């Protein structure tokens, strides 16, 4: 069986981490979203919102971490690896805020390709802001638009996961792989 590196994408608060946590509970190899860790580490250094205060530094750190996740996924003994957010997310967020970024951001999107991309749609009923998620729901909708445009630009076919129970969303994803 060929290695499947599957990425779950979607704007903030669409349920990605919940699905990753459930996949882990079912014994699947999964890599968590790393932006929360980067944000928490910056907050411990006194930077409240690194993405807002130093977006390029934040994005560089995310890009490095997501490339490492991809490379680690290739080395996993499991044939299927799920990742919460992918490399093109970094470009999508930079485009969302309108900042420029170095060429190696684009090159990384071209060099590291996921097997399948599942996108979770914005879902206002489950959306929650917290200390690491500063965006409101309207901003989440704009981010979603940038994610769709960016992944399509890099040739991905996006598989939309329906709004449903966690169980049914997991079954939908597993059925598609």
Automatic annotation (TrEMBL):
Residues 6-169 form the NadR/Ttd14 AAA domain. SUPFAM superfamilies: P-loop containing nucleoside triphosphate hydrolases (SSF52540). It comes from the Bacteria. InterPro entries: NadR/Ttd14_AAA_dom, P-loop_NTPase. This is Predicted ATPase.
